[in-house]
Amino acid sequence: MNIKSPQKLLEKIQSQLGQNIPTNLPFENEEYHLHFQKRAEEMNFKPEEYENGIDDLIKGFWEDIDMLDDDEVKIIKEKIAIGNAKIDTFRAMLVKVGNFYSIIFNFGLYIYLNKNLKLLHATHKPNDVMFCNRIEKKEYSGEIFHEFRDELCKIYKGAGRVLGAIVLLNPEVTIVGKQLYFIELFILCHELGHFFNGDLEDKTTTVSLYENSEEQILNEKNSNLKEFKADIKGFQLVLKILIKKHKLGKNPVPPHLILSILIINFNILTELAPKESKTHPYPINRLLNIVDLFYGKDAADFILKTYEEPNLLIKNKAKFTEISNRLKKYFEE
Ligand SMILES: [Zn+2]
Q1: Is the entire prediction scored with pTM above 0.85?
Q2: 272 CA to middle of ligand 1, Å?
Q3: 228 CA → ligand 1 middle, Å
Q4: What is the pLDDT of residue 278?
Q5: CA distances, 236 to each of 38, 70, 300 (Å)
Q6: How far is the centre of ligand 1, averaged over its atoms, from the C-alpha of 237 (Å)?
Q7: How far apart are the first and last CA of the chain?
Q8: Spatial distance between the Cα atoms of 122 and 176, rounded to a whole number of angstroms
Q9: 243 C-alpha to center of ligand 1: Å?
Q10: What's the mean pLDDT in 233-252?
């Protein structure tokens, strides 16, 4: 089949992988539905206007891409389509056929991140939870939400399914939304990083998406260096987008929060990664690689030490704050 546009490539992959993402997530029970409506009202959010929440996210990506340089926007729009696939795995990928590309976000990626980040927040601030489908309000505690988060990770690692407790946070809690936005943007930009780095151009380092298909994806074996480079290019693109948005008076993620969200992102990947992997760089090394380049070598050394000595973050909070603020200069120029 001759692919004539990136959109056609996306549609072909979606028809093979399965599409028709459930737009209105099934409500597990009436109580959840009522809480959801209450929260929506408090946030002045009209769910019926967002019939397709996940597609909205893709629309948001295009608004973000428009923040890049004109030549970057032009080539992305010419060559790449972005869409979802109804697959319950935590994964995004760049696919190539001929001259066109598609970035595919698996549905499981959104759901896993969403659940994980809410449970992480609930672990530290159980009082911010408005509703949980498993337990009564009087049972809410950091320990129990920590257990639910552990369980989410274990089920995913064991069964490859995204299944876990449903949690709704109070509408005042905006930090989790910022974390989700940043991590999804970073994932998008990492895939764009592979595109700009030309990682799918070299046929010796790609494999077929399905057996003998013309769709090519990056061969995960021996692609460590490509992954590190895609992170660097991706992080540059993220910063460009956030700085431009900041200058336009929008402030989706202030610079001082970026480091802590990056750490959360790579911690989530670490929790899901097998102990030893020859095909993937160890997620913490990916984190340190970014920190080294954008925050400085001393910052990377400090972050590495916090993994060996978890109390260090509490003991030396001032140092972490100082490092976190180092990106501010780019936003103020
Ligand atoms: Zn990659």
Answers
A1: yes
A2: 16
A3: 8
A4: 56
A5: 39, 16, 17
A6: 15
A7: 49
A8: 10
A9: 24
A10: 95
